[in-house]
Amino acid sequence: MPEFDDKVVLISGTGGRQGRVAGLMFAKAGAKVLGSDIAADRSAQTTELVREAGGEMASLESLDLADPSHAERWADEAISRWGKIDVLYNNAAGVGFAPFEDASIDHWDFTIRNELTIAYVAARAVWPHMVKRKSGVIVSVASVAGHRELSGFPCVAHGAANAGVQALARMLAAQGAPHGIRSVSISPGIVPLATAPQNPDVPASSEDVPKVRASGARPFWQYAALGRSAEPEEIIEAALFLASDRASYITGTDIAVDGGMSGIMWSGDR
């Protein structure tokens, strides 16, 4: 029997690469998936891909989950379809890029809203349904930047927002424990993008790693002890475990899935 049979999993940001992989992997494990994204076309494509692969998925677009009315609509849709919510996977995020001297208060507010507030609002929307059933798991995606600042990464609020996501996960764990609710955060390191990024420090895929090395640059992911960026599937595997009953005694902590970036000061050549 698939591990998530009869489980209802809400995944935000299903228009992005990690959200798409999460939808496919949770559905393959048997979950009934409800996605959402402000990027309506890409999120709808994810839903179709999951269905074509034999999984069960629906999605609501275009939703801004930092808006409480949108988040409540999303949670209500899951209850209307399946009568419960077992897992919230807080995956959606948006970040603005600018060095400190150029960043405006709008830049700061955008990142805090779309990395931290969005996770808080989504959790509030599912919370009463989990409390009512005395069970539930909230897995929130943070970042290695919540552990250590990435010098040269031009985003003034990214580290602060993701340290906030980690703290939010701990708070939800403390508040949720009497109700049978677990909460954890995952902090990825450098994850490749779906298309070639503007930032050359982030390879589009693991196949691009030799090209970046040959350029003579010292990219962020080279500071990972494993010497490469992560694949999205490696992040989602951690999420699947943490959301499952196998992790029934894990709550209130952050799991770094970063190739050693947050724990090892790697300076060696490769």
From TrEMBL:
Its EC number is 1.1.1.-. Pfam families: adh_short_C2 (PF13561). SUPFAM superfamilies: NAD(P)-binding Rossmann-fold domains. This is SDR family NAD(P)-dependent oxidoreductase. InterPro entries: NAD(P)-bd_dom_sf, SDR_fam. It is an enzyme of class 1 (oxidoreductase). The keyword Cytoplasm does not apply. It comes from Streptomyces cinereospinus. It comes from the Bacteria. Keywords: Oxidoreductase. Belongs to the short-chain dehydrogenases/reductases (SDR) family. GO terms for molecular function: oxidoreductase activity. Signal peptide: none annotated.
